[in-house]
Amino acid sequence: MTKAMNSIIAIVAVMAAGMAVPASAYDGTKCKAPGNCWEPKPGFPDKIAGSKYDPKLDPKEVAKQDASEREMEARNARRVENFRKTGRFVYEVDKIADK
User: How many CA atoms does the CB half-sphere of 98 hold within 13 Å?
Assistant: First the structure.
């Protein structure tokens, strides 16, 4: 065998050994209920408000996003309604004729 062939075999052996090690996963020993085994990481606060994990969302920005989503849903409803009536999908809502 050549030197390159030996190194390839060694690399493949190391990779196979790495795949043989089982993944360590949460074993579910502290479940609150069946299937409810979530636990915070050590140091994660019980209450998020006021901690460094608090996203501190601006109410004005949240309201803008909410309004945007409602407008999007209204446009999609018009598109679906038009598709059901005509059998043709029109993306641009302005081109949908009101009947």
Answer: 2
